[in-house]
Write a structure and sequence with these properties.
Layout lengths: L2 E6 L4 E4 L5 H7 L17 E6 L2 E2 L10 H5 L2 E3 L4 E2 L3 E4 L12 E14 L2 E7 L13 E5 L5 E5 L11 E7 L5 H6 L8 E8 L12 E6 L3 H14 L5 E7 L9 H5 L5 E7 L11 E2 L2 H8 L7 E6 L1 H15 L6 E5 L3 H6 L1
Parallel strand pairs: 1-7, 14-15, 14-18, 15-16, 16-17, 18-19
Antiparallel strand pairs: 1-2, 3-5, 3-7, 4-6, 8-9, 8-13, 9-12, 10-11, 10-13
Helix pairs in contact: 6-7
The structure holds flavin-adenine dinucleotide (FAD) and FE2/S2 (inorganic) cluster.
């Protein structure tokens, strides 16, 4: 049986049939509900039940504990209403024109700055002026109906872009990345759906920003920083990029070259070897943030990359440094293995 869900404060409402989650039904109805992983792990879709009852879905207690449920929290990507329900959710403004579409593209360039990272440029058809927000991602469509998400690493332009840059890390045994690192070549045709996701800088705030990336999580952070510099954004940005070794900082010279009074770049290595000849910061990247910002209560954080880093940052920043949970925005690069485990 279908039930009505009303979102507050917008008062947008829609029917949710039994085969859909609240998030899916809301997105299908055209409402911009926040989301990222869609498998109940990232908590981006979290809302608060104001009235009614839901089936919470099969959610791990680490993502939604019994205490969270008692407080009224719900993960909209997993929950289904059991009666007419009202949920408080911060819907997103300003992305009305950015409805996702399926678009063909051609591989224009494949660079391998390290043996396990490919920087791929894809060109869109001439008449496509692709518009997106810095930080969003696309889903590359594979032959058998599978999809793989990749963040857009170049910054958007008001008139749209015709080329997208993707940073792809090799996951050995992975369906798409094995192909990228063996057979993918210039002029190959791909298709993708996008733009997707709600990872982008909230411009309705003037709080200083901390950005924290691990590995290829640098891709959307690069787009966000470049867009911020182009717009002349006044908010200070501290960008932390963590990798295992010096080699994994596959584009180090780029953020080092950014000359902007409001942007500070701090690379961090967790496992430097003697060959790295590294004299910079070491340890876990989110710990470097905590050393420099023991009090994050007045800051907005954008984190992207390995799910373990994102989860550690989410927990430690709010529990140990006073970051308000709603000021933490993230895209965790979940793979199929992690989604299956979820
Ligand atoms: C929002 C988002 C943005 C992302 N952006 C980026 C990005 O910019 N750059 C980037 O490098 N990555 C990004 N990722 C990760 C990316 O989408 C892929 O997950 C990753 O590249 C691996 O894809 P693959 O097809 O090569 O591997 P997969 O086929 O997904 O396999 C990954 C691993 O899981 C195993 N596996 C596959 N299926 C299962 C299963 N059912 N059960 C158990 N194990 C399984 C495989 O053997 C392999 O070891 C992003 C992910 C998300 C969610
Ligand atoms: S989108 Fe619901 S938990 Fe990630």
């Amino acid at each position: 049986m279908a039930f009505k869900v009303e979102l507050q404060p917008s008062r947008h409402s829609f029917e949710v049939s039994p085969d859909k989650t609240i998030l899916q039904a809301g997105l299908d109805a055209g409402f911009h509900m926040p989301h990222s992983c869609r498998v109940g792990m990232c908590r981006t879709c979290r809302g608060t039940i104001k009235s009614g009852r839901v089936d919470y879905g099969d959610v791990h207690p680490a993502s939604l504990s019994d205490i969270d449920k008692a407080k009224g929290y719900v993960l909209c990507c997993q929950a289904r209403p059991l009666e007419n329900t009202v949920i408080e959710v911060k819907e997103l403004d300003g992305i009305d024109v950015l409805r996702p579409r399926v678009i063909p593209c051609r591989v224009e360039k494949v660079d391998k700055p390290t043996p396990d990272v490919a920087v791929i440029s894809v060109r869109l058809p001439m008449n496509e002026n692709f518009r997106f927000l810095a930080g969003q991602h696309i889903d590359v469509q594979l032959r058998d109906g599978k999809r793989r998400s990749y963040s857009i690493a170049n910054s958007p332009k008001p008139e749209g872009v015709t080329t997208l840059e993707l940073h792809v890390r090799h996951t050995p045994g992975g369906t798409f990345t094995d192909q990228v690192f063996s057979t993918l070549k210039v002029r190959d045709l791909l298709s993708f759906e996008g733009p997707l996701g709600t990872f982008y800088v909230r411009e309705d705030s003037d709080k200083p920003i901390v950005m924290v990336a691990s590995g290829t999580g640098f891709a959307p952070i690069k787009a966000m920083c470049e867009a911020a510099m182009q717009k002349g954004m006044k908010r200070p940005i501290a960008l932390y990029w963590g990798c295992w070794t010096r080699r994994d900082l596959y584009m180090l010279s780029l953020p080092e070259s950014w000359q902007h009074p409001n942007l500070k770049f701090i690379p961090v290595l967790s496992n430097p070897t003697p060959e790295c000849a590294w004299t910079g910061r070491t340890g876990f990247v989110h710990r470097a943030v905590m050393e420099d910002f023991p009090n994050l209560s007045g800051v907005q954080v954008y984190a992207c990359g390995a799910p373990a880093m994102v989860e550690a940052a989410r927990a430690d920043f709010s529990e140990k440094c006073g970051l308000p949970p709603e000021q933490f925005y993230a895209d965790a690069f979940l793979t199929e293995a992690e989604k299956a485990a979820a």
